[in-house]
Design goal:
The model has no long low-confidence stretch (mean pLDDT about 95). The strands form two sheets. The chain has a two-stranded parallel sheet with strand order 1-4. By secondary structure, it is mainly α. It has a single domain, classed as di-copper center containing domain from catechol oxidase. A hairpin with a 5-residue loop joins strand 2 and strand 3. Helix content is about 35%, strand content about 5%. It has seven helices and four strands. The protein is globular, with a radius of gyration of 18 Å. The structure holds copper (II) ion (CU).
Length: about 290
């Protein structure tokens, strides 16, 4: 069983193992979706893009709706398994970031995710392992057909964006039911916790191709952790809705990661129901 923890509780060794695995997936593992033209890391960027826009957009949409948690859960787990395979280390797990920048909670350090972008250099990240200048992190998939090959961030430039506080998180965790409606857990978490973080980080994270920034996986890992926390806090509430009714949204629906005319990014398939228990997917939170 893999145990995921907060990045600030990771040893220096586990942090560098994680970074090394990300760089291997980015540089040394070929794509399954566009072999020879991008890396396996870039496949995750493309899947997320295709979930939102473009000629290979698929349905149903895993954003702005109940599939948000189950769909991203499988995306993250497949990425985690690919990291382990790339590095040949089953000890590698996804860390989460709780959106705090205080002290050791800050993941934007030179030995981990690198800093904010530099506004005088087109918002390029200029330090850390993913800086374009370090030569190991070339962006290959953009919302448009081409774009800047450097990773970009622009902390706080969008003045409507914010990093949620622990009290905003607690307020969201109190919401029931799972979905739908403006007062539900899903709508509150996606709209008031998840979206503002993407926009606050800015740069690549504000795009449909947001997995270009490795912080995407730490951000979504925290979202995934919060879904577990929410379930624990509301043991008698349905963990997912709608339970029935079809339209690709209910518990029996199979999660979609590619247009049927295109290559599947991985061979297993998952119904929504199969994502409700993390231990059956092989991981838990420590
Ligand atoms: Cu997403």
């Amino acid at each position: 069983m893999d145990t995921r923890i907060s990045h600030h509780k990771m040893s220096q060794q586990s942090k560098s193992d994680f970074i090394e695995a990300v760089l291997l997936l980015k540089n040394s593992v070929d794509s399954k979706l566009n072999p020879g033209r991008q890396s396996r890391y870039d496949d995750y960027v493309l899947i997320h893009k295709n979930a939102m826009m473009g000629p290979d957009m698929f349905m149903p949409m895993p954003h702005r709706g109940p599939l948000f948690f189950p769909w991203h859960r499988v995306l993250l787990r497949q990425f985690e398994l690919d990291l382990q395979a790339a590095a040949g280390k089953t000890s590698i797990t996804l860390p989460y970031w709780d959106w705090s920048l205080a002290g050791s909670d800050n993941p934007f350090t030179d030995d981990f995710l690198g800093s904010d972008g530099d506004r005088s250099q087109s918002n390029h990240v200029t330090s850390g392992p993913f800086a374009h200048s370090a030569g190991k992190f070339e962006i290959k998939v953009w919302d448009a057909a081409t774009g800047d090959p450097a990773l970009r961030r622009d902390f706080g430039d969008d003045h409507t964006a914010y990093l949620p506080t622990s009290s905003q998180v607690a307020t969201s965790l109190a919401k029931v039911p799972y979905s739908p409606g403006p007062g539900s857990w899903e709508v509150t978490c996606e709209g008031s916790l998840h979206n503002p973080v993407h926009r606050w980080i800015g740069g690549n994270m504000a795009d449909a191709t947001s997995p270009n920034d490795p912080v995407f996986f730490l951000h979504h890992c925290y979202i995934d952790y919060l879904w577990e926390k929410w379930k624990t806090q509301h043991p008698t509430t349905a963990p997912y809705l709608p339970a029935t009714g079809g339209h690709g949204l209910d518990l029996a629906s199979t999660l979609v990661y590619h247009k049927s005319s295109r290559t599947a990014p991985w061979s297993p398939t998952y119904t929504v129901k199969q994502t409700l228990d993390t231990t059956s997917l092989g991981y838990t939170y420590g």
